[in-house]
Amino acid sequence: MVSPESVAVVPDKGPGWRYYLQRPVVVIFFLGFSGGLPFPLVYATLTAWLADADIQRSTISTFAWLGFAYSFKFLWSPLVDAVSLPLLSRWLGHRRAWLFASQLALIVSLLSLAVIDPKLEMVAFAMVAVAVAFLSATQDIVIDAYRIESARQELQSVLAASYQYGYRVAVVIGTAGALYIADFVSWSMAYKAMAGCMTVGLVTTLLCSEPEVRAGVASQLTGPAIAQARQWLFMAVAEPFVDFLRRNKRHAFVLLAFIASFYVSDRVLGILANPFYLDIGFSKSQIATVAKLYGAWVSLIGIGAGAAAVIRFGVARCVVAATVFIVSTNLFFALIVVTGPRLEILALTISFDNFALSFGSTIMIAFLSGLINVKYTATQYALLSSISTFFGKFLAGYSGDVQMAIGWLNFFFYAAGTGIPAIILSFMVARSMLAEQRLE
Prior knowledge:
By secondary structure, this protein is mostly helical. The chain has helices at 23-36, 38-41, 44-52, 57-62, 68-71, 77-82, 88-92, 94-114, 122-149, 156-184, 187-197, 199-207, 225-248, 252-261, 264-270, 273-280, 284-313, 315-328, 332-339, 343-371, 377-396, 399-417, 420-439. Mean pLDDT is 87; it is low at 1-15 and 215-219.
């Protein structure tokens, strides 16, 4: 599965390969690794652990709500932007202090998670998982700010790409790597190893330098920290949202409804993907090899195909194809129910599912980017991307209850059915976009 909050960014053709050897770009690669590692550990990998521990699927699916930490991180980002940490900020500087604190706390939280048995101490396990998600989202806030502030404008596309490369490597380690360790040793050792991998970010923070400037909204803030936080929230949330409604007028609510529904079917299914693989009879190593390692390569192909499709056919036509593709590929999981644990069928399902999601995510990125006012580039994109994942995460929290009531086969038809509103809305959006193009 592709992280809903991550963005695949391809650098401009201008910068050559030597740009990737510059110190800020290398630093962002390792910070991207640090940012990407915790996400699967509170999502796909965590659900596999819970399923392996025979936790009820209705309980497992509620862990989808951990994703709200990523969706709502803009609510406490003003405090991260404005409040200095005692002693640490004086020693490391504002950004590095927050990085160091969040990374150290993440390591401690992952080690704590590793020693808790979810079968015996579910409440404690859930509380620590919430802490990991919150700290991971906080780290993301600081990394984004550090990336923007650490280099000149012409390097930003390279920094974004470097971040994504680091992020993708970490996701593979946090999924396939953790599953291999869990299969051959234990889940406790897997999470201890992942906590050890988080030291990559900690060491990077200690070795990198503090940005010389405060960028974006942060540079416009004045007054005490709490007053700055209020200013930040208004400038980063209220103004960009009102601007979006004003510019899109009568189309605004259709656009928002489409954005909100686009990922619903994928999220409803995705939270139970690993529990399903284990339940149907695949081993953790088989899941790691096919669903995670092989799936990662398929996702890269899907990203490239999505970019090529936008160039060739335009965003308006692609949004319909992307939506139909994502919704329909959910039905391939029903094939596994019928055939049982056959690796070739799993590979076929992963091929279509990962390709469709990465293809569709690339289309959605292009679609959202076209809706953005350059005056509010970062803030509007963050708000719209949060909207795009909110309802999917909310419904995913109930996926376990639905599955237990209707069984796996019917569940996959249900998951596909939750995508029907998105398909209908995609036709409405495409029609309005094509109509506007004809008027121009």
